[in-house]
Amino acid sequence: MIDKNSPIPVYYQLKEDVKSKISQGVWAVGQCIDSERELVETYGVSRMTIRQALGELVQEGLLVREKGKGTFVCEPKVKQKNMMSFSEIIARSGMKLKTKVLEFEIMEDIEELKDVFNSEKIYRINRMRVVNGENIANEVVYIPCEYLEVKDKSVLEGSLYKILEGKGYTIVNSETSIQSVIMNEEYSKLFEVEKSVPLLKTYSKNMTEQDKVIFIEEAVYRSDKYVLEVNISSRGEGKLK
Questions:
Q1: CDD domains given for it (predicted)?
Q2: pLDDT for the residue numbered 81
């Protein structure tokens, strides 16, 4: 299982083998994996190597350590790294996605959106994203009617990105603010949970290559099920906002 003569670091080989066992169901979600001592005997490597491999898997959210109990397999999370529709993220992860359209209406002369959109009529679309049977994300989208002609709201159960691309609008950039929010009674009902779970709220302006804002999205995610990875670079004129 481990080739010590390979140019690939031993800890990385071990890490990949543990990931493979998890994906194959050798260790199921919620199950405690072998102890460090057992892994040392199985793989014939040092305890330091074991700890490095497991430490990275903990950072990646595949494992969780519980003091005095052991290391357990985590439930897989929805992970977003770059500009990609939620539908595409779920499709790539192999999970099952269902989208519920909670509200759909046309709003007129919205004062707070006039600085963003030069449009008199704007769609407000409220959708719940259900992944593997659980409510994971609530998205409220504001988009001018001229960008998205909707004759049947069932079309909104799919990817808005793909609908917009079909009309010649490709989203390549997003200005997003992120904050944590506290679970309250409203969110508890919305996500259909009785226990308190961590939530992540985002507000984003989604734009074309010409910096034309196509839609605004206000979203709330269960951050115990969703991970948003942000890459920050100091190259060029990039700024932190």
A1: WHTH_GntR
A2: 53
The CA-CA-CA angle for residues 72, 75, 76, to 5°, reads 125
Q: Are residues 43 and 151 in the same domain?
A: no
Query: Cβ distance 169 to 146 under 8 Å?
Result: no
| DSSP annotation string for 71-110 | EEEPPP-EEE-SS--HHHHHHHHT--EEEEEEEEEEEE--
Q: Cα(217)–Cα(221) distance, rounded to whole angstroms?
A: 12
Tell whether 67 and 82 lie within a shared domain: no
Distance, CA of 116 to CA of 216 (rounded, Å): 9
As a whole number of angstroms, the distance between CA 227 and CA 200 comes to 9
Boundary (domain end) residue, out of 73, 93, 122: 73
Q: Is 149 exposed, middle or buried (0-12, 13-18, 19+ CB in 10 A)?
A: exposed
In a domain, 23, yes or no: yes
Mean pLDDT of each 10-residue bin along the chain, 241 residues long: 88 92 87 93 94 89 87 72 63 79 89 83 93 91 90 87 89 87 92 89 90 92 73 47 37
